[in-house]
Amino acid sequence: MTQATLFPKRVGSAMSHRSDPMASHLNADALNRSGAISRQAKLVLWAIAHCAERGRLPATAAQIAEWTGLDYYMVQRRLCDLERAGKIKREKETVTCPVTGRPAHRIDLA
Question: Which residues touch 51 (CB under 8 Å, ≥6 apart)?
């Protein structure tokens, strides 16, 4: 049984750069094959949708990381994937993030 992926397979590996060491390419392939990338993206998308369902303001990446238990940088990577796939949108204006206290964009469903 093959797990369905949320994103189409990319030509080459956008998760690692051509100049990265071979270990980066191998780890990127392992993450794709294991379905971890897809699971993380689904969890991030769920958190954004759950926020919208409850009538809350759109969330920042740091809030999503806090709610899901995922690493902030991992959330940012999945947000980029989701944005490219047209699933989410980032607001143009920045707000003060309630988690970090720094300027951040709110994220909402597309």
Answer: 57, 58, 59
* Residue 5 within any structural domain of the chain: no
Q: Give pLDDT, residue 52.
A: 72
pTM above 0.85, yes or no: no
Q: Which domain holds residue 97?
A: 22-109
Entry field: residues in the chain: 110
Cβ–Cβ under 8 Å, residues 37 and 57? no
Strands 88-96 and 103-109, how do they pair?
antiparallel
What is the rounded distance in angstroms from the CA atom of residue 25 to the CA atom of residue 45?
Answer: 26
- In sequence order, what are the residues at sequence separation of 6 or more whose Cβ sits closer than 8 angstroms to the Cβ of residue 70? 40, 43, 44, 64, 78
- Pick out the chain residues at pLDDT < 70: 1-14
